[in-house]
Amino acid sequence: MEIRIEKIRKEFDRYPALHEVSLGIKSGELIALLGPSGSGKTTLLRLVAGLERPTTGRIFFGNEDASWKPVQERNVGFVFQHYALFRHMTILDNIAFGLTVRPKSTRPPKVEIRRRALELLDMVQLTGLEKRYPNQLSGGQRQRVALARAMAIEPRVLLLDEPFGALDAKVRKELRKWLREFHDRTGHTTIFVTHDQEEALELADRVVVMSQGRIEQIGSSDDVYDRPNSPFVFSFIGDSVNLPVSMAHGDVQFGGEAIGLQHPTDGTGQIFFRPSDVSLVSEGPGISGKVTAARRLAGTRIVEVDVGTSATPHHVEIEVPLDSSAERGTELRFRPTRWKVFPNA
Ligand code: ATP
C-alpha cells in the first residue's frame, strides 16, 4: 500500500509537534523514522495509524484520503516497544486475537483462524511454541509474537514504534536481521520508528531523518551517511568533526589560514568531515595542532588534537594510520579528504 503524507501539521494545545511534514512511501518499502527524542517520530506514526488527527494536512492510503478515518478502518498493524501480549492467553490465541474479535460477518471460521495463526507462528519461526504463555518466552520471542499478532489481520501497513527498544543489544541485532528478512519475504509497507542510527541505516530502504518536528533529509542509508544535507544530519548520523571556517577568494580558511580546500562562495560557515576522512600532510596548507592524546583501535589510531588559536581553541578527534608517529605532545597537520562546508545563513 502506497502512503502519501501531505503537509501534515500537528499541534498539541497550540504546541507544534509537526510542522507541515510531507512524505511519500512506496508500496512495500521499509522506512525508518530516525531522530532524537521529541523530534515528532511517534506523532507521525500515530497519525498514519489513525490514533491522532492532523491539525492540517492530509494522509492518503493509495488514492483514498484516510486523514479522518478511524483506526479500526485503516487496517494497520502495530507493534510498540512494550507490546503487552495477553498474559492469560497462549501464544497461538494471542496471534489469533485480532481475527477472533472481528464482527461475525467478516470473522473466518475457527479452523481457518487456527490455520492462519499457525502459519504466522511458522513465519516468525516459533513453530512448536503455540501452547506456551508469554511469560515462558524470551523478550525477542515475545516481540516476534507481537509482530505475528499485528500481521494476523492482514494489515495494509505495518507500523513499528521502537519495536526492539526494550531488548538487550545482542537480541536487538538478531531481531534486526530477522525483521529485514521477514520484510523481504512478506513485502509489507512498513514504517518503523527508532532513535538508533545503526538500526535505521542497516534496516531501512529509506531513512527519514527528523528534528524538531521537521524532516531534515529523506534518502537511502548511503545518502544520509555520505551526503548529509544539513549540519544536523551530518552530526546526528555517524561521527563527525566540525569547525568554523571563513571563505575568501575561493579558499576555505580556518583560524585565518588557508587549509588547502576550495569553496565557491565567500563568507563564513562550518566545515564538517568524518574523523576517518583526513590525510596527514607534512607541509603546505592544512589544519595544524598539538596532539593531546593518542590511542589505538583495532586497525587505526585515534588522535585528539588541539587546533585553532588560543583565542578560539577547538578540540578534534581524527583517525590516522597505525604507523603514523602521532604521539601526545607532537605537532600534527592534516587536511580533510571528504568534507562539506555549510555556509552560515
Ligand atoms: P521519543 O523518541 O522520545 O519517543 P519522538 O520523536 O517520538 O520522541 P514525539 O513523541 O512525536 O517525539 O513528540 C514530539 C513532541 O510533541 C514532543 O515535544 C512531545 O512532548 C509532544 N507531544 C507528543 N504527544 C503529545 C501529547 N499527547 N500532548 C502534548 N504534547 C505531546
Automatic annotation (TrEMBL):
Assigned protein family: Belongs to the ABC transporter superfamily.
NCBIfam families registered for this protein in UniProt: 3a0106s01 (TIGR00968)
GO cellular component: ATP-binding cassette (ABC) transporter complex
Transmembrane segments: none
Keyword terms of this UniProt record: ATP-binding, Cell membrane, Membrane, Nucleotide-binding, Sulfate transport, Translocase, Transport
One Gene Ontology MF term: ATP hydrolysis activity
Keyword Signal: no
Organism: Rhizobium setariae
ABC transporter domain location: 3-237
InterPro entries recorded: AAA+_ATPase (IPR003593), ABC_SmlMolc_Importer (IPR050093), ABC_transporter-like_ATP-bd (IPR003439), ABC_transporter-like_CS (IPR017871), P-loop_NTPase (IPR027417), Sulph_transpt1 (IPR005666), TOBE-like (IPR024765)
Pfam families attached to this UniProt entry: ABC_tran (PF00005), TOBE_3 (PF12857)
Name of the protein in question: Sulfate/molybdate ABC transporter ATP-binding protein
PANTHER family listed in its UniProt record: SPERMIDINE/PUTRESCINE IMPORT ATP-BINDING PROTEIN POTA, SPERMIDINE_PUTRESCINE IMPORT ATP-BINDING PROTEIN POTA
Gene3D superfamilies: P-loop containing nucleotide triphosphate hydrolases
Source domain of life: Bacteria
GO biological process entries: quaternary ammonium group transport
